[in-house]
Amino acid sequence: MLKSYLFGITLALSLLMSPALSGQPPQSKPDPAADRSAVQQTVEEFLRVLGQRDIEKLPRFFADKAILVIVRQRAGAFTPTYQTAEEWLAGLRRATNAQTFEEPLSNISVTVESGHLAHLRAAFRVVRDGKTQSMGVDYFTLVKEGEDEWKIAMAAYTSLPASGT
């Protein structure tokens, strides 16, 4: 009798805690392939908008308090800079001689953890008028906001001069 009583209580509690009966929306199961694709599309769209210099569309790609870390090689030395996304965007807005460019990615690797945290690593080239200006490696950390919107929480990249420049 005690056994069936405990079973009944356990069953009742599990039903009360189920999303359908608790008023909570059901949690969809992560789809790793879809998440990896969405992360890559988000980063590639960000780079496309950046390359077109459509600065006013860039803030939508960033999570609150996003940061950028840039490691540039100049005169044989590597120098890191650290900026919030807001500081970085303000710098882009101040640029007076900015030119459009393309930033094709290669050797792309995307990992997604628990359907809510992602990391993309890829080699890149900055191309203007068909000529490579610089190259390096991009690292993006993205977080999922809401059901399916990936936002950049951190972007870090190396920036090396192109061979012969």
Break the fold down into its secondary structure elements and pairings.
Elements: H1 2-17, H2 19-22, H3 32-51, E1 62-74, E2 77-84, H4 85-94, E3 105-113, E4 117-128, E5 131-145, E6 149-161
Parallel strand pairs: 1-6
Antiparallel strand pairs: 1-2, 3-4, 4-5, 5-6
Question: Mind explaining what this structure looks like?
Answer:
- It is a single chain.
- It contains four helices and six strands.
- With 165 residues, the protein is an alpha+beta fold.
- It has a single domain (26-161), classed as Roll (Nuclear Transport Factor 2, Chain: A).
- It has a six-stranded mixed beta sheet.
- Strand 4 and strand 5 form a beta hairpin.
- Mean pLDDT is 87; it is low at 6-13.
